[in-house]
Specification:
Elements lengths: L5 H16 L5 H17 L6 H20 L3 H38 L17 H16 L9 H9 L12 H9 L6 H34 L6 H32 L17 H7 L2 H12 L9 H19 L3 H19 L19 H22 L3 H11 L13 H16 L16 H17 L14
C-alpha cells in the first residue's frame, strides 16, 4: 500500500476515526488497533511476510525480558548475539543470499574452476532493512542498560510495526518511540494540522518532483548509449532530485502521519543538498540511518578516538557497510567507497565538523564562498549517485565516461522545461524553509488564511496535474 495511492487515502481516515473516536479511552486498545492496522498495511504487499516480522518482534521482546532478569555478563552477551544473529540472519538470507552465491561462483570461475550453483527465487520482504535495525536498536540498548525493557507485548509489537514508518523509516530508536506507546495520547488540533501540512509537502515531493524526474531519469539511464554527455548529465541531475524527493517525501509523509496519531518521530532529512561539505551532507541525509551506524558500529569500533589509521579504517567501514545496507550490488559498495573518499580530506584535516549550523543562517542568500562550497558538494554527490542508480559497475563507468565526453558541451536532446521549472520552484521553497524541520512548516504562517490556503491549493493542484501516468513506487521500498 503506497502513501500516494487511493487505497491509503481510504485506509488512513478509517484508522484515524477508529483511533480517536472508538478506542481513545483505552490505551491498550489503541495500541492493539495500531498493531492490527500496521499488520494489515504490511500484509497488503505480501501477507506471507507477516510471520517474519512477528517472529523477529517476539524474539527480541523475549530477549529483552531475559536481559532484564540476567546479571551474568556471559549470558547477557549470549542473548545479545542471539538477537543479532537472528535478525541479521533473516536480513542476510532474504537480501544477500543470491549476491554471495553469484560472487562465490564468479571467484572460482576467475581461477578456472567452474561451479554450478542454482540461486533461489527469493522475494525481498519490503522494509526488512528498516525494521531489522529498529528492533536491533532495542536489544542493544537494553543490553547496554540504556533502556528498561518493556513487558507490554502489544506496545512492543506496535513499536516494531508502526505503519507510518514501517517500510522505509525513519529508523526509530526504542528510547524515543517505545515510551510513546506507554503514554496516553491526546489529540491536539495544532499537531494534526502541522502533520497534514507535512504530509502535503511530502506528497508534493514524491508525486510532483520525484515521479516526474523519474520519468526522464529512467529514460536516459535505460538508454544511456544513445545520449550525449549533456543529456547524461541532465539524467544524473534528474535522478539526484528524484531520490531526494522520493525518500525525503516518504519521510515527511511518515512523520506527518505519525503526528496525526499523537506521535513524534525524529527528523530524517535536513535539506542535505544545501550542505557545504560531505560531512555536513551526511549529517543531513537519512539521519536515522547515519546516526544508527554511528552509535552502533562506528563508536563501538573506536570512532575517532584512535590514531589516523583507526580513524581511516572506521570511516571506510561505516561508509562501505552503509552502501552494502542499501542493496546486494557492488554499485552500492562503490557508492559508499566514493563517499568515504570524499570524507577523507575533511577527516585528515579535522574539518569534518566545521559546518554544524544552517547555511546562510542570518542571511537570505549564501555568500560566494558558501555558494561554491554547496555547488562543489552537490556536484560530487551527483557523480556518486550515478553508481547508486546504474545497473552495474560497467554501466556506471560507461555513463560517467559519457558525461565527460566532448558532447557535454552540446545541447541536451531532452529538455523538459516544465519539470525544470518545478524543480526550481521546489529548490526555492526548500531554501526559504531550510531552518525548519520541513520546508513549509512555518511558511506563510503569519499571512492571512486566504494566502495560506491559496498556497496549499496550488500544491494540491500541482499534485493532481503532474501526477505521473504510471505510479512510481518509493525507491527505498527495495532496501
Amino acid at each position: 500500500m503506497y502513501f500516494n495511492s487511493l487505497d491509503f487515502a481510504v485506509f488512513l481516515p478509517i484508522v484515524f476515526v477508529l483511533y480517536w473516536f472508538v478506542t481513545n479511552r483505552n490505551l491498550k486498545l489503541q495500541n492493539a488497533l495500531l498493531v492490527t492496522a500496521s499488520y494489515y498495511f504490511y500484509g497488503y504487499w505480501d501477507w506471507r511476510f507477516l510471520s517474519l516480522i512477528i517472529f523477529s518482534s517476539v524474539i527480541d521482546y523475549c530477549i529483552g525480558i531475559a536481559l532484564k532478569n540476567e546479571s551474568k555478563l556471559s549470558k547477557r552477551k549470549l542473548l545479545l548475539w542471539i538477537s543479532i544473529l537472528v535478525n541479521l540472519g533473516f536480513l542476510g538470507f532474504f537480501k544477500y543470499f543470491n549476491f554471495f552465491i553469484d560472487n562465490f561462483v564468479q571467484v572460482f570461475s576467475f581461477f578456472g574452476t567452474k561451479i554450478q550453483a542454482n540461486t533461489l527465487d527469493i522475494i525481498l520482504p519490503v522494509g526488512i532493512s528498516f525494521y531489522t535495525f529498529q528492533t536491533l536498536s532495542y536489544t542493544i540498548d537494553v543490553y547496554r542498560r540504556k533502556l528498561e525493557p518493556t513487558e507490554d507485548l502489544i506496545s512492543f509489537l506496535a513499536f516494531v510495526s508502526f505503519f507510518p514508518q514501517l517500510v522505509a523509516g525513519p529508523i526509530e530508536r526504542a528510547t524515543n518511540l517505545l515510551p510513546q506507546f506507554h503514554k496516553k495520547r491526546q489529540f491536539h488540533y495544532s499537531q494534526a494540522v502541522d502533520g497534514c501540512r507535512q504530509i502535503l509537502w511530502g506528497l508534493f515531493k514524491k508525486v510532483v518532483i520525484a515521479d516526474n524526474c523519474a520519468d526522464y531519469a529512467n529514460q536516459i539511464f535505460n538508454n544511456s548509449a544513445e545520449h550525449s554527455g549533456s543529456t547524461l548529465l541532465i539524467g544524473a541531475l534528474f535522478f539526484t532530485f528524484q531520490i531526494y524527493g522520493d525518500f525525503s517525501g516518504y519521510s515527511d509523509i511518515a512523520i506527518g502521519t505519525s503526528r496525526l496519531f499523537g506521535f513524534d518521530l525524529k527528523q530524517n532529512f535536513a535539506f542535505p543538498y544545501f550542505s557545504r561539505d560531505i560531512a555536513e551532507f551526511w549529517r543531513r541525509w537519512h539521519i536515522s540511518l547515519s546516526t544508527w551506524f554511528r552509535d552502533y558500529l562506528y563508536i563501538p569500533l573506536g570512532g575517532s578516538r584512535g590514531g589516523t589509521w583507526i580513524k581511516l579504517r572506521n570511516t571506510f567501514i561505516i561508509f562501505l557497510v552503509s552502501g552494502f545496507w542499501h542493496g546486494a550490488n557492488w554499485t552500492f559498495v562503490i557508492w559508499g567507497f566514493l563517499n568515504a573518499l570524499y570524507f577523507l580530506p575533511l577527516l585528515l584535516t579535522k574539518r569534518n565538523r566545521n559546518n554544524l549550523d544552517v547555511v546562510a543562517q542570518d542571511s537570505g542568500t549564501p555568500s560566494l564562498k558558501e555558494l561554491f562550497q554547496m555547488g562543489s558538494t552537490f556536484g560530487l554527490t551527483v557523480l556518486a549517485w550515478v553508481f547508486f542508480r546504474a545497473e552495474n559497475i560497467n554501466h556506471a563507468c560507461f555513463y560517467l565516461s559519457g558525461i565527460f565526453d566532448r558532447s557535454l558541451l552540446s545541447l541536451p536532446s531532452i529538455r523538459p522545461t516544465n519539470v525544470i521549472v518545478l524543480v526550481v520552484f521546489f529548490i526555492v521553497i526548500e531554501w526559504i524553509g531550510r531552518r525548519q524541520k520541513f520546508a513549509i512548516e512555518v511558511l506563510l504562517i503569519k499571512k492571512t488564511r486566504f494566502v495560506k490556503w491559496s498556497f496549499y491549493m496550488i500544491l494540491i493542484a500541482l499534485i493532481f496535474v503532474f501526477s505521473s501516468e504510471t505510479q512510481q513506487e518509493f525507491i527505498y521500498f527495495q532496501f
